[in-house]
Design goal:
By secondary structure, this protein is α/β, with parallel strands linked by helices. Helices cover 22% and strands 28% of the residues. Helix 5 packs across helix 6.
Length: 325
């Protein structure tokens, strides 16, 4: 099967959504300094956006509330007062600049740059397992970056529930890379993010110019739930840390009875789930406050169709059986 989709005329590259994730901050600053414009993505205009300038200035994740949880339909469209958190106001500014979310005026593609303290490698994180633009970009990154693990994470949420900045575009994903401590920039991590972004823009240029991208299978990790740290019932303080056998083993299959936590007194706590699952964002620093020690995912294979830009005279989303060679 072959799918033809509209060209990607407007691309937004965002960094500093979390002000202490410095690879994206410095990469967007570099893009703003060099003003990439249309040449970076061929005939697509590329807009660089420093998403949370106040938090970035202070090198903090956020000022009042997590900006990357402020893009649900309810948050963007509900009443807002003068006393609203800064990030709620900033989310509406970004929605007006890059959206509005769900509208024909929204940018064609949002790539939001993030760092993790977890051993994630390079991840494309999206809300759809059938957005062929995002999935083909992911496969292209895998081919172009063989020396770093590249994975696709699927958060199965509706357009109403999708909460992050990348959901404002017609297509969008977070480009997440780790491990890197927050408030620090590591040259190897920055360079890998820069390479991943350049390959993404190269893919956009190739797609818009008529390149045909062959279909095929791709592994997708669909989020199935999360696990919190063991906590004291009264104080809510954590009483255990990630077990040494699990630490840094993101995307390694977790089997029932495998070690998950080690209590502060040295006792091993084991995984009691009913099925093997894949852990990721293990011991992510920013998720302590969210009650998340790790996420769990199911891995499955998705078959991508052959993809090309649609030609004049054909409707967008045109689908045809691929012609015989």
């Amino acid at each position: 099967m072959e799918v033809r989709l509209p060209r990607l005329s407007r691309v937004a590259v965002c960094g500093g959504t979390h002000g202490n994730e410095l690879s994206g901050v410095y990469l967007v600053r570099e893009l703003l300094r060099t003003a990439p414009g249309a040449e970076a993505g061929g005939d697509a205009s590329v807009q660089a956006v420093l998403s949370n300038p106040r938090a970035t200035q202070l090198c903090r994740r956020y000022l009042d509330t997590d900006l990357n949880r402020c893009f649900t339909r309810a948050a963007l469209n509900g009443p807002v007062s003068d006393a609203a958190p800064y990030e709620m106001t900033r989310a509406r500014e970004l929605d007006a600049q890059l959206g509005p979310k769900g509208s024909e005026r929204a940018v064609d593609l949002v790539c939001d740059l993030h760092n993790s303290t977890s051993n994630m490698g390079l991840c494309v994180i999206a809300y759809s397992d059938c957005d062929w633009i995002c999935l083909h970009i992911f496969r292209y990154l895998q081919r172009q970056m063989p020396n770093i693990p590249v994975r696709y994470i699927h958060f199965d949420l509706s357009d109403e529930e999708s909460f992050s900045l990348d959901s404002v575009g017609k297509h969008g994903f977070a480009l997440e890379i780790g491990p890197q401590p927050h408030g620090v920039v590591r040259s190897n991590i920055y360079t890998a993010m820069k390479e991943g972004l350049q390959h993404t823009l190269d893919w956009v240029r190739l797609f818009n110019s008529g390149t045909v991208f062959d279909g095929g299978p791709a592994d997708v990790f669909t989020m199935a739930g999360h696990v919190d740290y063991p906590r004291d019932g009264d104080t809510r303080n954590i009483t255990a840390a990630i077990h040494p056998h699990l630490q840094d083993r993101d995307f390694c299959l977790l089997l029932p009875e495998d070690p998950v936590f080690q209590t502060l007194s040295g006792q091993t706590l084991r995984y009691k789930g009913g099925e093997p699952l894949y852990p990721f964002f293990i011991n992510e620093c920013a998720y302590y406050e969210k009650g998340v020690a790790l996420y769990l995912a199911r891995k499955r294979s998705v078959t991508l169709p052959t993809l090309r830009v649609h030609k004049e005279g054909l409707p967008a989303n045109f689908v045809s059986e691929k012609e015989e060679e």
